[in-house]
Each structure stands twice: as structure tokens, then as C-alpha cells.
Amino acid sequence: MKLLIDDANLDYIKKICEFYPIDGVTTNPSILAKTKEDPYVVLKKIREFIGPDKQLHVQVIATDAETMFKEGKRITEELGENTYIKIPANPEGFKAMRLCKEAGLKVMGTAIYSKMQAYLSAKSGADYVAPYVNRIDNLGYDGVETVKGMQDLFENNGYSTQVLAASFKNSNQVLQLCEYGIGAATVACDIIEKFVDDNNVSKAIDAFTKDFEGLVGKGKDMSNI
Q: Nearest CA to 75 among 88, 61, 65, 64?
């Protein structure tokens, strides 16, 4: 499962990438608005940092298919070929997805709450769909199980579209989808930092260090004994 950062704060992105194996970055208009900077300035900084090989996902703003398509072309021109155009999974969006794919652009269907939206996005050529796990939970459904159903739908019908799950409230949701073989997940920085936030790990490391220093002396390790 690919792991992406759901944020546009470059300092946060750099911090996470220093320690964790990250495959890319996803953004949306609300995330970009939090930076209080010009969107393309922010996105170009992110692209420069992550390089051309990692994925960058950027959402369109327009509500009609033709303008969404124009946005998609501009986004790709500015940020490179490995940039995915996030298009909402509604009627105008499905049309825009087809236009973008016909032009060779990479596409993600976003704002997905149902398997039908996922199906229609796949039929429209989307490379990824982004279901909102926790938001689906908040509607009274099971977000994790809904996303698993989308994966099954794609596999059963032979679609190459992959699920890029989003909107998580905890690391367990991420792990459940990883165990199921979901293609990708985009996760907020604060949740990524909690992936291995376990006091038992710290206790074990402290015990190992104490025992080793008891043998060879304080401040010693395998590089300086």
C-alpha cells in the first residue's frame, strides 16, 4: 500500500519524510488555503522537495467539466506529469475525468462516499478514487468496509483503478485497509506520527540501552566500542 501525506505545510512534509517512507503528497483547496500563500507557489515547493517521481495530487475548483479540464492541463503543465488531477465524483466530474484521460492526464476521483461513485469514476478512466473513510463513518455507515467493497468492485470487474483512501481518524483504520491490500492511503501528519507512538517500544529500547551500557560503558554503541 502506498502511503501519502495529506497536507500542504512544507515543514510538516519535510519532518514526516525525514523518518517515514512516503510515496507522495495529496492536497485539496482547504488544505492549500491554510498555507495562506499562492497555491502554485506552495505546490511547486512541494514538487521541488519530493522530486518528480513521487505523486502529487491537486484538486480542481471549477464546477463545469470544460473548466475542470482546463485546470487539469494547467496543473500538469506547472507541476509535472506525475501529478494527479483530483476531480469530484459527480456528473460534471465524470465528464471531466474522461476529457482529462483522453488528453493523457492522470486522474483521481475525489469526494467519494459511495461504491456507485467509485464505479462511475473507474468507468470514466480514473487512476485512483479517494473515498473519505471517517466521513462515511459519520454518515452512519462503516467507512472501512465501504472502502473494502470498492476494492472488491474494481477487482471483480477488471478495472485498473486503485483506491486511495482518505479522511482517517486513527491509525487502526489505516492498518485495516493495509491488511486488506488497498492500493494507497493519504494520511494527516499527526496520525502518521502516531503509527508507532507506543510507550512499550520506548521502554524496550531503554532496557536494551541500559543493558548494553552496563557491559561496555555509558555513551557507547556498536560504532565506537
A: 61
Catalytic residue among 54, 86, 106, 148: 86
Q: Each residue of 29-52: pLDDT tens digit? A: 999 999 999 999 999 999 999 999
DSSP at 179:
H
Q: Average per-residue pLDDT in the chain?
A: 97
Question: What integer pLDDT is reported at residue 41 of this predicted model?
Answer: 99
Has this prediction a pTM greater than 0.90?
Answer: yes
Angstrom distances, CA of residue 68 to CA of 24, 50, 87, 98, 100? 22, 25, 8, 11, 9
Q: Given phi > 0 = left and psi -120 to 50 = alpha, else beta, which region is 16?
A: alpha
Task: Clarify whether 220 is annotated catalytic.
Answer: no
